[in-house]
Design goal:
Elements lengths: L5 H8 L2 H69 L5 H25 L1 H8 L5 H10 L3 H13 L3 H28 L4 H30 L11 H39 L4 H12 L1 H17 L2 H9 L6 H35 L5 H8 L1 H17 L4 H25 L1 H26 L7 H29 L5 H27 L4 H6 L4 H10 L1 H8 L1
Helix pairs in contact: 2-3, 2-5, 2-6, 2-7, 2-8, 2-9, 2-10, 2-11, 3-5, 3-6, 3-9, 4-5, 5-8, 6-7, 6-8, 7-8, 9-10, 9-15, 9-16, 11-13, 11-14, 11-15, 12-13, 12-15, 13-14, 13-15, 13-18, 13-19, 14-17, 15-17, 16-17, 18-19, 19-21
């Protein structure tokens, strides 16, 4: 790839159309990746059971935290530093980036591989040590993957990055499910099922690396070291930037890591038999795909608006960035509130439909409230990062992680897995309130008028009344003759459809968001047209 005049070329391509096309491509790829990430956990739990799910969820956060930091935070940091550098410095920055991330990968590999017996003992299950060693292998592929992604993003060539993300996740899901099915079919242990899932993660990363390497080999690397840059200042800047960029994405993974070290061990120490403690932790972990699905709907649409804030902040004329800040908040809160309410209302049926039983439904309902807080945190963090305010939000979220760990220690012995769900909500509420206070001090704007909250509450009440009425009807008359799991599936899916239809109709009728605001949100054009249709009679009356 010819790099001559790269900075000038990038400026030429830095039009709104080009920017939004690349952002939309990555958004769509991210949506597919998240959807696959949510989807594979359900059949995996169905194959391996709650105990097998417990094993996988104990180990996954160790890989997930490093993967999220490198493949997202570090690659974006590299692309940003390349875009901001002089052409002759680009080769040196790439070399430093690869050396830096390789150093971190070797350290993490050593901690996981050689420290696996100690880490497993801290989690209260020594049989997890071999799985930690397998997970250590996954981190060795991340330096190449992160740097190649950063290289492509710096040149605003989002196609290879998007393709690699989707291909990586597709291979991962395929290997996980096929491997788990083979292991379970031949009667191997739940730890073997967990190992199969981890090998799937490694296979996916290898697939992503292979695709990016082939693309780079075809187009040409094009970087030469023509000018040196200061080593340690570059490393410090790259590390700090990557951590701040990825911390909001890492939040739930870090909460899962806290759960890995505390929930099972505390359950067993409080007197629960070992196998039952494993099963309870597995039931608790059912909440992870449900919350991820909620966030998939709630945060993806709102976060897609956030890049406009940075663009409008630098663009002379046009709408001020405050308009898009408000829209990001309103869209995130609206969708998150509806998603959270829907999950709570249908939880027993969703639980049985996906995971075979209704066990732990109350805990999962409480856990799902986290969708609300995390959606707001993700949006505010993204906006603050775009404004260059990264350190204080990262510290506030780190404090939230400490609160989560402390809450587990206090509440799990007394309340079991419900205590862990409450601890997560308490930590996130405090983090959200703190970040809100900081945001208002940094950017003192009014997010929404009182009428917005009043209309949203009315839409939520309308949805709740209709969903509960439908569930009562479905339970007593429509699906009561079907087998239990099929009945739960029919009730859950039809109730979700009823709830979505009622909420969207109410939102459109009351114009919680304007038609122009819906047009900015991806896939919002149809909602804007529906809203215009819903209010056509009202508009005719106004014209008369």
């Amino acid at each position: 790839m010819a790099r001559t005049g790269m900075n000038a070329g990038m400026k030429d391509r830095s039009t709104m159309a080009s920017f939004m096309k690349g952002a939309s491509l990555l958004l769509m790829a991210g949506f597919i990746v998240k959807l696959l990430s949510v989807a594979y956990r359900v059949p995996f739990q169905n194959l391996a059971g709650d105990r097998g799910f417990y094993v996988y969820q104990q180990i996954y956060p160790f890989v997930g935290v490093f993967t999220a930091w490198t493949s997202y935070g570090f690659s974006v940091a590299v692309s940003k530093m390349l875009a901001d550098s002089r052409e002759e410095e680009e080769g040196a920055i790439l070399r430093i980036a690869f050396g830096c991330i390789s150093g971190f990968a070797i350290i993490v590999f050593g901690l996981l591989f050689f420290g696996s017996p100690l880490l497993a003992d801290w989690m209260g299950d020594s049989e997890l040590a071999p799985l930690l060693k397998i997970s250590a292998l996954a981190v060795l592929l991340m330096p190449v993957l992160a740097v190649l992604k950063g290289f492509s993003q710096a040149d605003q060539d989002m196609g290879p990055v998007a393709s690699a993300q989707v291909f990586e996740q597709t291979v991962r899901v395929f290997v996980i499910l096929i491997g788990t099915w083979i292991v379970v079919s031949y009667g191997f242990s739940i730890y073997a099922a967990g190992a199969a899932a981890l090998w799937g993660t490694i296979a996916g990363e290898l697939a992503g690396v292979t695709l990016l390497v082939l693309y780079t080999a075809r187009t040409g690397w094009g970087f030469t070291v023509r000018s040196k840059v200061a080593l340690w200042p570059t490393v410090r800047k790259m590390t700090a930037l990557s951590v701040s960029l990825s911390f909001s994405s890492l939040l739930l993974l870090l909460f899962q890591l806290a759960d890995s070290f505390t929930v099972f061990r505390l359950l067993e120490e409080s007197g629960l038999p070992r196998l039952e403690a494993m099963e309870r932790k597995g039931v608790y972990d059912r909440a992870q795909p449900l919350v991820q699905f909620g966030l998939l709907l709630a945060s993806s649409l709102a976060l897609s608006i956030v890049p406009l804030v940075a663009r409008m902040d630098r663009k002379p004329g046009g709408r001020p960035p405050e308009h898009y800040v408000r829209l990001s908040f309103r869209a995130a809160l609206l969708i998150a509130a509806a998603t959270t309410a829907g999950l709570i209302l249908t939880m027993p049926y969703v639980n049985e439909m996906l995971f075979k039983t209704t066990e732990g439904s109350a805990t999962l309902a409480v856990f799902s409230i986290q969708v609300m807080w995390v959606s707001l945190l993700l949006v505010w963090m993204a906006i603050l990062q775009g404004a260059g305010k990264e350190k204080v939000p990262a510290l506030l979220l780190l404090a939230g992680l400490i609160l989560k760990w402390t809450g587990n220690v206090v509440l799990v012995p007394a309340l079991g897995i419900m205590g862990a769900a409450l601890a997560g909500n308490i930590a996130l509420i405090i983090s959200t309130a703190s970040l809100y206070y900081y945001f208002k001090r940094t950017w003192p704007i009014r997010f929404a008028p009182f009428a917005y909250y009043r209309k949203m509450a009315a839409a939520l009440v309308s949805m709740a009344v209709c969903v509960l009425s439908w569930i009562l009807l479905a339970d007593s008359l429509l699906f009561n003759s079907l087998p239990d799991r099929l009945s739960a599936a029919c009730t859950a899916l039809t109730a979700a459809a009823v709830g979505a239809a009622v909420f969207l109709a109410a939102a459109a009728k009351m114009r919680i968001l304007s038609e122009k605001e819906w047009y900015v949100i991806p896939f919002g054009r149809k909602m804007a047209k529906f809203q215009l249709w819903m209010n056509k009679n009202k508009r005719k009356g106004e014209l008369r």
